[in-house]
Amino acid sequence: MSFVPGSSRHPGPRQLQGSKPGLLDPTQPARILRHPNSTLCFAAFDPLAASGHAHPRKRTPDADPARPKRIVIETTPGNRMPSRWRFVPRARRAPGTPGSEDEGVWPRLVIVCGEPFILTEDQWDIYKLDPIYDCFIPAAPHHSIITRKEPSLQDASHTRGDSTAEHAKKRRLSSPALDSEEHRNLNKKFRTVVSLVTDDEGTDIEEATESDDEDEVEDIVIEELPRKDPSSSDRAKQRRKAREEQTRERREKVKAKAGSSFESNRSRTPEIVDLTMEDITPPGSTTANGVPAGSTKRKVFGGQDSPEETSSRGRTYQPNKRARTLSPGTARADMERKRAERERRRMAQQQERMNGMKEQREQQFWKGVFADTPLPTPPPSQHNDGSQRTAEDTRLNDEDAERQAAIEESRRKLAELEKDRPLWEQEARKRAMQEQMEEEARRLRKEEEQLRAAEAAAQERQRQRAEAAAAEAQRRAQSEQARVQQEREQRRRKERARWSYGPWTTGRAIERYKMLSDEFDATKFSVDNPADFEMIPWPVLHSPVTLRLEDIEWSAVEAFFDAAKKHMRTQDYKVFVEKSHKRFHPDRWRARGILKSVSDEELRNCLEVTANTVAQALTPIWRAMKG
């Protein structure tokens, strides 16, 4: 029953997660699970965890110990059957995709049979385990694709799997240790195929597969089993030695077989691939010989070329495991040598091209020199009745003369060119010196421009800092002025409240005058702290609530000092008059800048007239006190 997903009813791709097969294809569990009710779980294989020891025994070192290997573990319900595990095969890759083990970040969008789904890594591995589906990773930015294989490809895959399973059961010699009850349940899918690839120089290089890792797993299992007697170790060594000998012989046969057809099949793709490594060509593409990718698989050994061994029980074993023929260091050194040889050939070809271009330039130069040489004109014949022999001799002599003249002209031009060589060299030196001077001038101009730009930037920063400082100072001055004005207003309100209540008497008038006089004499007037009418201690007996500029007259000043004379002692009165006279003197006001601090011109004029009136009224009183 085929599976063709319908159109999605959801606005976005459906998400497939978990390790349960058959979410889209109901027939999938029958192809993957050994038991209908088994459960799958996926993990990364680690030889240390498989051995159960923190310090494993000496084994073959892995060339890439950091690469992850995904395995699938099948567990039956109720543990009625032992759990089994195997490696998850790789997906096919497009040419140029990075990495061989890393298949990207999960979950991600995957096109399953033409419909997009969000798949987790477990669901992706389930489709890789299913033999009727093909998992392909194209180059970025395309999404991964899962398609259903053709029926012919599925039949070939099943045939190849059966053959592989049959060979996998015959991969080792029989022994009491392996034939015991403890080894009957050891059934894993070991890969038994050798892959040969050809590098750029045509040298056969063996491609590493997962068989070495699986041999390591098998060795771990065998080493962890209890040994019944000392002879088991000897038998294991003999089996290992026999296996290495078989691998060596098989490798020699493969090399001999590959070398015979190397010249005709040099550019062909590898004929022998890993069972778990599908072809990396996109779906629908074919190989160089027209066979569909992944349809068939040739075995390494066939017929009389397949080495066979016969055990003591009469069985015939066909070993299909081979070890590495070259160490990574040897292969790397060989590649470096070939790369150096290619570099030498490239340099030789480049030198040859340069020599050819130089020779071509010289030939063009000589052609130009000979082209500029005028051909001599033969003189007209003076004897028309000469014999034909004389004419022919004359023609030959003329040709020799022309040739000789051309040679002489060429020699002359060459001599002139050689004579002018010092001039050419001198001109070349002058041009080089001129270019050097111009380059130096450009460099100096560039440095000067950079210096001017740096100076301008510094000046701009300084100007900005100055503006910021001025703005900050102005802000502080305004804040201070506002604070002073606020304090002044508060003080005025307090004074007004103080002198506004209660009966107004002569004593309170004199007391208020003295208090305002002390504050007036101590205040420094400026534009930020200007003088006003209420700050000046006017010597009158009027109440500050009703006092106006029109009330300050000559008679009011005389009445104030007459009342003060009655309330004060004579000596105190003299001091009082002396200070008042100096306080309202016009020169004193001008020196203190009282009037300049007032910004309102009308108020300034009124204050000036009133202060002069008080000063003129105080002058006779001060003189009478002195007399």
Automatic annotation (TrEMBL):
Residues 148-167, 224-252, 333-346, 355-364, 390-466 have a biased composition (Basic and acidic residues). Residues 1-30, 148-184, 198-497 are annotated as: Disordered. It comes from the Eukaryota. Residues 198-222 have a biased composition (Acidic residues). This is Uncharacterized protein. It comes from Lentinus tigrinus ALCF2SS1-6. The lineage of its organism: Eukaryota, Fungi, Dikarya, Basidiomycota, Agaricomycotina.
